[in-house]
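Bumping my old thread because nobody answered last time. Still need a sequence for this structure:
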């Protein structure tokens, strides 16, 4: 029946129909109870059905369900913008525009950058992921499936290497890999577009869909410095890494870099579609009156949920909860690496981790089939995980920050059992 209703282009990792969920547990129509280590793909840092988020949504629903910001602003919109402005690692005076999704926010961020600089070119990274709209799929650094069938692609969007050090194409150490990637940007300025024609560089502090690729220390600060020296805006995509996922409230905080524009999404609405473009005041004001717009962007219900979420995260959950989860995962994965010969690499921060699976550790031969089997085997054990990565051979763990030590331990036990039963 599903195949008669849903186009085949909507790929779903897990069979079945979800009907109810609480905390990290999700129930299906078929009677299963599963531990959800995807957090709805990074959307639910407090897990499913957190009563504090429910309360905020319910209270708001009794007052105002919708109002378009073009018509008249509403209090939750302004409250959330104020909270975000105070929270982001920017100088005072950051301005905020609310929209519906991370992809939409990326589109707006690029429009802002082009308006602010008067320059056309935008630079992204190999392996980066920014969405599936026309512009964002062009910016995404992976040809298939994101760009396939979408030609002609958006104009003046370019890509340079990202330091994926485990798979450094040049066989270098992390520092050497980062150096070659730095040289890649310098070479781009020489042979593709000079820096005075580049409006922005768009980067994820940690690549998510690209396989939880963590750049070596110093790469992001260097990137920020190059952008400042050349009048290029640094756009930091925190759609997946933001709001406590990697430890601090925003992953860029650990890099000591102040972005010109930040993009937030996924977790921001507490489960309700919501995203934000946050930028320095003079940058955001480069878009003329009526240049911004989104009929449903900044919906009152999402804004109320977002305000409550930030209150909870800033009230002590961050950085303690993600660091606690990081300790549990890192300790267990050290054991796995010693025992499982086809577990090539483990990397991550906070509650964002990737297990890279290979056929041969020495040759690092990527194995998407092993990744698919591990996802399936975990599901048989009652745990939902997803795969990703440039080669589709990375199994990703995105547990809710609210998971208890016992719940996290149970999930890791089940993954360990699954690892023991394949290949």
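Sorry it took so long. Here it is:
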């Amino acid at each position: 029946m599903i195949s008669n209703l849903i186009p085949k282009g909507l790929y779903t990792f897990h069979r079945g129909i979800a009907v109810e969920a609480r905390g990290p547990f999700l129930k299906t129509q078929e009677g299963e109870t599963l531990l959800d280590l995807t957090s709805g793909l990074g959307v639910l840092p407090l897990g499913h059905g957190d009563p504090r988020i429910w309360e905020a949504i319910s209270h708001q629903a009794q007052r105002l369900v919708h109002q378009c910001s073009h018509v008249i602003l509403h209090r939750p919109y302004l409250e959330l913008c104020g909270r975000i402005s105070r929270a982001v690692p920017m100088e005072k005076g950051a301005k905020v525009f609310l929209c519906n999704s991370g992809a939409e926010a990326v589109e707006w961020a690029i429009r802002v950058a082009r308006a602010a600089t008067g320059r056309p070119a935008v630079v992204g990274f190999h392996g980066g992921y920014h969405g599936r709209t026309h512009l964002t799929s062009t910016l995404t650094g992976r040809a298939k499936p994101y760009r396939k069938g979408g030609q002609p692609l958006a104009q003046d969007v370019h890509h340079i290497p990202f330091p994926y050090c485990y798979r450094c194409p040049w066989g270098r150490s992390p520092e050497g890999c980062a150096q070659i990637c730095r040289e890649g940007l310098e070479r781009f300025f020489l042979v593709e577009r000079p820096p005075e024609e580049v409006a922005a560089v768009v980067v994820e502090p940690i690549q998510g869909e690209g396989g939880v690729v963590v750049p070596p220390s110093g790469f992001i600060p260097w990137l920020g410095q190059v952008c400042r020296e050349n009048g290029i805006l640094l756009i930091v995509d925190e759609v997946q890494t933001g709001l406590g996922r990697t430890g601090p409230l925003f992953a860029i905080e650990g890099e000591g870099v102040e972005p010109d524009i930040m993009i937030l999404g996924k977790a921001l609405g507490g489960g309700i579609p919501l995203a934000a473009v946050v930028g320095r005041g003079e940058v955001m004001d480069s878009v003329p009156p009526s240049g911004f717009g989104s009929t449903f962007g900044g919906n009152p219900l999402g804004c109320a949920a977002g305000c409550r979420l930030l209150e909870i995260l800033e009230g002590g959950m961050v950085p303690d909860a993600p660091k606690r989860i990081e300790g549990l995962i890192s300790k267990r994965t050290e054991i796995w690496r010693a025992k499982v010969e086809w577990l090539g690499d483990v990397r991550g921060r906070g509650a964002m981790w990737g297990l890279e699976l290979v056929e041969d550790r020495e040759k690092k031969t990527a194995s998407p089939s092993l990744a698919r089997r591990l996802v399936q085997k975990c599901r048989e054990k009652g745990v939902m995980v997803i795969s990703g990565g440039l080669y589709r051979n990375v199994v990703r763990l995105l547990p809710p920050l609210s998971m208890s030590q016992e719940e996290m331990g149970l999930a890791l036990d089940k993954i360990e059992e699954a690892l023991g039963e394949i290949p």
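The mean pLDDT is 96. Let me know if any region looks off to you.
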